[in-house]
């Protein structure tokens, strides 16, 4: 490991302590909580959508999230280790065969749907999450 890689690893460790970012990939639905500063106030704003791309580049890693808001497609690129990104929550895992889902930009409605992953370790984790949420919902009633 050269000097630059060591410095980047130290910075990544410093920026991630206290944060619990889940493992996610393209096709997964995520909710990103972003710190927004308005004047002197600071608040948390949620942005929920499908992760269409992931760029793994050490300290410069980022991911792109796409959602449809009032009939318009909205995409935001978030730096993974930014102090402005408060947290990332994994909502559901998607079953896709591509690393970059840019083809979703040209699709609307049913053709833009992504199937939920139901096999393998990720599918088992998703099924366990669904069961846990159902149990919580039943307990509230």
UniProtKB/TrEMBL annotation:
PROSITE patterns: RIBOSOMAL_L19 (PS01015). The keyword Ribosomal protein applies. InterPro entries: Ribosomal_bL19 (IPR001857), Ribosomal_bL19_CS (IPR018257), Ribosomal_bL19_sf (IPR038657), Translation_prot_SH3-like_sf (IPR008991). One of its GO terms (biological process) is translation. The keyword Ribosomal protein applies. It holds the Pfam family Ribosomal_L19. One of its GO terms (cellular component) is cytosolic large ribosomal subunit. One of its GO terms (molecular function) is structural constituent of ribosome. This protein is located at the 30S-50S ribosomal subunit interface and may play a role in the structure and function of the aminoacyl-tRNA binding site. NCBIfam families: rplS_bact (TIGR01024). HAMAP family: Ribosomal_bL19. This is Large ribosomal subunit protein bL19.
């Amino acid at each position: 490991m050269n000097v630059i890689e060591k410095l980047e690893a130290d910075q990544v460790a410093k920026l991630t302590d206290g944060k619990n970012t889940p493992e996610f990939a393209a096709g997964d639905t995520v909710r990103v909580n972003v710190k927004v500063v308005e004047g002197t106030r600071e608040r948390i704003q949620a942005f929920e959508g499908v992760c269409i791309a992931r760029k793994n580049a050490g300290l410069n890693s980022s991911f792109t999230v796409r959602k449809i808001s009032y009939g318009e497609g909205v995409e935001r690129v978030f730096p993974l280790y930014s102090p402005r990104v408060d947290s990332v929550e994994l909502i559901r895992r998607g079953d896709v065969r591509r690393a970059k889902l840019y083809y979703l930009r040209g699709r609307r409605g049913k053709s833009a749907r992504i199937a939920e992953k139901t096999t393998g370790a990720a599918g088992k984790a998703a099924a366990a999450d669904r069961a846990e949420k159902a149990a919580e919902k039943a307990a509230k009633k």
